[in-house]
Design a protein that fits this description.
The structure holds two protein chains of two kinds. By secondary structure, chain A is an alpha/beta fold. Chain A has nine helices and ten strands. The longest helix of chain A is centred in the first third of the chain and has 15 residues. By secondary structure, chain B is an alpha/beta fold.
């Protein structure tokens, strides 16, 4: 029997997001993608940070791990290296990923572990009540910036391209079929796959609602973008903010972190037998 | 004639090479069948400033370093004027007359660093009538034989072998072993340098020194390693599979050593972007079911703090080695101290079970590192091994350690076949410890949640759920306390004084006790190995002690505070030091003697 989103849904409770939140779209897209990929829920690990969207694992029946603000990526990396046979999804918000967790994000791209990183990007801090985020536009007003955000926003796509991220994608929480396919592509990609997801915050970022994104997003692949061309990708990434290309900006095949290390050739580290390790050769080596 | 009992020191500028020849000297003594203890004092610079490497040698196991030297090898201008007073009567110093002479001009003053000496001081340093001076033109010989003055350290080690009337062949063999990677030319030049130093002393000072190194008959098989190395060996024996670290002195050799053996023992060793990442990764790996380690020093540990609490909350096993150096802040990067106990005990918000332990010496460090991984999985909590630079970077000879009795205890980690329908990861149990599944296991899916949660891991804020889960978690602390090994009193239980200490202070303290005993002063020792939970039995032991004396490498007597809080005994006599230098047996001896007066 084909799997359905229900197979990935926790029976404990229902999401507590505001009605109309973009997180519902991301949640459904992830579950549909998992179902269509026919992933065994016991072989999936969903690791999140802290924030509205990062509460996600509560509503999944897979293995889940809600970590700390900004730390989804390193925790997911550790778990992935312990058992690289799992399907690991890291999931965070824009403050989580591009603010407090920025250092990890940059180094994970460099490291290229085989995992998907979904970043719900709604340009605002929701759970702490409406402050600006690293992706908020200059001039944006909020409780921490009553006279307007003094700083221009981070461009996560351009940043990822500059850091040799091996899969750079962007989706939109209001375009479910497209997002499902993008998450599937990201999962099937061998390496670290960034999926930045534009999402409306219906409570704190009312200016950028569904209509706004509906009008301004366009499909890169439908527009004939060549995802193997890094220069073309960068051009699309720095297009004026009036347009939001979605789809795969860039993808390349390069060795995984774990590919280049013989330790991982004998199967997932977690399955190695640790009962009969002999350290006498170490004593010998330090003897003379 | 003193045979096989020697406190040797080599001093030179950073970057001039005192580590390699020092270790060569040590390995040759090990080869002769002797026991050793060595420690280095150095500045936090890559080049310049005077560094020393102290190596103590005997036919019986050596517990600690001392600062009274029998033989000093000075390969710079500064070692002699800085340390000439610390040479014992009858001892000697090998120095290079082109660097050290009575008409030396005033040294260049480096603020906060190098010793300021002038001709007057140099003259004094070279005119003690109770020690032997052995001028050896090491730079000149090195220039002649190798074409490089810097090879004077190898010339110097050759000179030492001759002065100690020991054969040169082991040194030559060791040079081959050490430099083989660098090619025949380097090997041959170093051999020539060592041989020339050896010959020079034979010709000029034959048998003029009353210390000798001789081969011991049927020696015990030993190896020579520092505390960090032996802890990594213990961890490997325990099934270490994952290491994440950001380099920080004096913990970096944990990273280096595990990296060196990563492929031999199939370990994922990661030099990561920062300590935040290191601890978070290690928690992720521990959660996913492998034996996972981080190592750092105080400053790096401060960055790990939040993730420590996460490990406590999601009940992930992880082991952290915290190698202390003096703080606060950047403090003294290359020195030793014991000022991080409270940081490690209390790091992270809220309350959660954790174990804090500290080994006293190298052998104990191996077994404790092994045990730490069993404890982490048995109690599903973070476990901290606190060490200090003195133990972690100090070397000792160890016998080939017995490992046959060591077992792997994975606690309540379930096999897939043991997971029943309706499994809940954080179920309520008598001892507080929950049966544990790991990702990938069929039927074991759950949420590991840094928020307060239900038995399934699902978030909750409801009072009765919060209380029940909190109490169940903290129950583990009682279970841990009940099962920790009891504290033990070492030495005569009726002694008048009891030294109370922790960590590497054990080493100089145990030797100080021998010295005091020889003087007829009865001293025993309570070495506390677990600080959190405080090891059971500490109160009972102290209640029967006549006069406890705390010896700690900090200002505020941190262990003393823990004992006062948990055992209700406020120890009045304290020997504290925060200079960044390890205690010496002499220092503890003198201070205890003062108490006796």
């Amino acid at each position: 029997m084909p799997r359905s989103p229900k197979d990935y849904t926790s029976t404990e409770g229902k999401p507590n997001w505001c009605p109309g939140c973009g997180d519902f779209g991301i949640e459904m897209a992830m579950k549909q993608a998992m179902a269509q990929l026919d992933l065994d829920p016991d072989k999936v690990l969903l690791v999140s940070g802290i924030g509205c969207g990062a509460n996600m694992p509560n509503w999944f029946s897979t293995y889940g791990l809600i970590t700390l603000h900004g730390r989804a990526v390193p925790v997911a990396t550790g778990a992935h290296l312990a058992n690289h046979e799992l399907s690991v999804f890291a999931e965070a918000g824009d403050g989580d990923a591009y603010g407090i967790g920025m250092g990890h994000f940059i180094h994970a791209m460099r490291r290229n572990p085989n995992m998907v990183y979904i970043v719900g990007n709604n340009t605002v801090y929701g759970l702490t009540k409406g402050q600006i985020s690293p992706t908020s536009a200059k001039g944006c007003k909020g409780p921490s910036t009553p006279f307007g955000n003094p700083d221009p926003p981070i461009n996560p796509i351009a940043l990822a391209l500059a850091n040799h991220c091996s899969f750079v994608g962007r989706g939109y929480a209001g375009n479910l079929p497209h997002l499902v396919n993008l998450i599937k592509d990201a999962h099937n990609h061998k390496g670290f796959a960034l999926v930045d997801v534009l999402q409306p915050c219906v409570t704190y970022a009312k200016d950028a609602g569904y209509k706004y994104y509906q009008d301004l997003t366009y499909d890169l692949q439908a527009a004939g973008h060549d995802k193997t061309n890094p220069e073309a990708a960068m051009k699309r990434a720095v297009e004026p903010p009036e347009k939001y290309p979605i789809g795969i900006f860039y993808q390349d095949e390069r060795p995984l972190y774990e590919d280049e290390l013989p330790q991982f050739k004998k199967g997932a580290l977690v399955h190695h037998d640790i009962s009969k390790i002999d350290v006498t050769p170490l004593f010998e080596e330090y003897s003379f | 004639m003193k045979i096989n009992e020697l406190n040797f020191m080599i001093g030179g500028k950073a970057g001039e090479g005192i580590e390699v020849p020092g270790n060569m000297f040590a390995k040759i003594c090990m080869h002769a069948g002797l026991w050793l203890h060595s420690t280095q004092e150095f500045y936090s610079v890559i080049k310049g400033y005077n560094n020393i490497n102290q190596i103590r040698v005997a036919e019986q196991p050596v517990k600690s370093h001392t600062n009274r030297y029998d033989l000093v090898l000075s390969i710079d201008d500064e070692t002699v004027p800085r340390y000439y007073e610390d040479i014992v009567p009858g001892g000697g110093v090998i120095y290079d007359p082109s660097l050290v002479s009575a008409d030396s001009r005033q040294s260049e003053l480096v603020p906060g660093g190098a010793l300021k000496y002038d001709a007057k001081l140099m003259k004094k340093a070279l005119s003690r009538d109770d020690i032997n001076y052995f001028p050896v033109p090491m730079s000149e010989i090195a220039q002649e034989k190798v074409g490089l003055k810097l090879a004077r350290n190898i010339v110097g080690i050759g000179a030492c072998m001759a002065l100690l009337d020991y054969e040169i062949q082991p040194l030559l063999d060791l040079i081959v072993k050490t430099f083989a990677r660098k090619g025949d030319d380097i090997v041959n030049k170093n051999i020539d340098a060592a041989q020339a130093g050896y010959n020079y002393v034979r010709e000029h000072f034959s048998r003029q020194f009353n210390y000798q190194i001789r081969n011991v008959k049927n020696p015990v098989k030993k190896f020579f390693a520092d505390g960090n190395e032996v802890m990594v060996f213990g961890a490997i024996k325990a099934g270490l599979k994952f290491v994440a670290e950001y380099p920080m002195t004096p913990s970096s050799s944990v990273l280096h050593t595990s990296a060196k053996y990563a492929q031999k023992y199939d370990i994922s060793v990661n030099h990561v972007e920062d300590e935040l990442s290191a601890m978070n990764m290690a928690v992720g790996a521990g959660y996913a079911g492998v034996r996972s380690l981080v190592a750092t020093s105080g400053g790096g540990f401060a960055l790990m703090t939040e993730a420590v609490g996460m490990a406590g909350m999601i009940e992930a096993p992880v082991v952290c080695i915290e190698v202390q150096r003096p703080g606060p802040s950047s403090g003294l990067p290359t020195r030793s101290g014991q000022g991080d106990l409270r940081q490690v005990m209390h790091a992270s918000q809220g309350e959660f079970p954790r174990i804090v332990m500290a080994p006293g010496h190298h052998e104990e460090a191996f077994y404790m590192a092994h045990e730490a991984f069993n404890l982490a999985e048995r109690y599903q909590c973070p476990v901290f091994i606190i060490s200090e630079k003195y133990l972690s970077e100090g070397h000792a000879t160890l016998p080939f350690l017995e490992t046959g009795h060591l077992t792997i205890d994975r606690g309540k980690l379930l096999k897939e076949s043991e997971i029943k329908a309706g499994y809940k990861r954080y179920s309520f149990t008598e001892d507080g410890i929950c049966p544990r599944s790991i990702p990938g296991q069929k039927g074991g899916a759950h949420l590991a949640n840094s928020y307060e949660h239900l038995e399934s891991g699902y978030s909750t804020e409801e009072v009765h759920h919060v209380n029940a889960m909190y109490e169940r978690r903290m129950k583990k602390m009682e279970t841990i306390e009940k099962n920790l090994p009891h504290a033990e009193l070492e030495g005569d239980p009726k002694a008048d004084y009891t030294i109370v200490c922790w960590g590497g202070t054990y080493m100089p303290a145990s030797e100080a006790i021998n010295m005091l005993t020889r003087d007829g002063i009865g001293v025993n020792m309570l070495h506390v190995k677990y600080m959190l939970p405080l090891q059971p039995g500490v109160r009972e032991i102290l209640e029967h002690c006549k006069r406890p004396v705390l010896v700690e490498g900090n200002y505020t007597a941190m262990l003393g505070g823990v004992i006062a809080e948990k055992a209700g005994i406020d120890i009045q006599s304290k020997i504290l030091d925060y200079s960044g230098r390890p205690f010496t047996p002499d220092f503890i001896y003198a201070r205890v003697k003062n108490l006796v007066k």
